[in-house]
Amino acid sequence: MKLETVIHPDTRPCVALFIDGENLSPDLADQIVAAATGLGRRGLRRVYGDATRMSGWRAQGSLQVIDSAQGKNAADMLLAIEAMEAALLGGARTIAIASRDRDFSHLARKLSDHGVHVVGIGTAGPDCPFRKACSDYRNIAKSVAVPACAPAPVASPAFDEAKVAKWIETAIGQSSGKCLSLSGLGKFMLDRHGVSKAQLPAATWKTFLKGNPRFTVDAGDMVRLVKKKPPQDGGPFFDIG
């Protein structure tokens, strides 16, 4: 007995999908495509945006990336034009628009005026004008990027006050006037030794230097060395060099 395979045609409506690629994350691409697939037969599947920033959407594989070029609202305008074209010239009766841009409410209403069943896809809340203007709305989960493995924190090296003081002494000793401005010292320490103000145990270079008896900072914010002199009365004292 010969068995015949009966193929039933897919009578579901053909669904044209238009995605605002600059308004939604490409991480949502698979969810958007799945939502559109559940609505009917596959029709146009287009995503709009500046082509130089569409690599994530291109990687999805089943979407046609439409380059809207750079420019304010360029992607929105091109999407609206081609959606209307699909309805009025291409005969599309079900159009899915994936976006969270409230301005697409105008497009949704105009398509509905022409008898098109408009399905919104996105992450909009119930009060979003675009969502309200659609015939139906499919909410998808917001994408949260989670790194596969967070890098282990790198401990900052301990601040070596004696070494930093020695570097400062050397810098002052090599300067022509045997002194350095606070700003010049800060730049020197950062450029030469990679030591910034943020690494200091004090709030500023001035405070740090004033806490060290080897240095003095005058009223003009010039840093000088304090040189030791032989004691005169049995105790040590310092003088500005």
Automatic annotation (TrEMBL):
Q: Name one GO molecular function term.
A: RNA nuclease activity
Limits of the NYN domain: 15-138
Gene3D superfamilies per the record?
5'-nuclease
Top-rank taxon of the source lineage equals Bacteria
InterPro entries cross-referenced by the UniProt entry:
NYN
Q: Which PANTHER family match?
A: HTH OST-TYPE DOMAIN-CONTAINING PROTEIN, SLR1870 PROTEIN
Q: What is this protein called?
A: NYN domain-containing protein
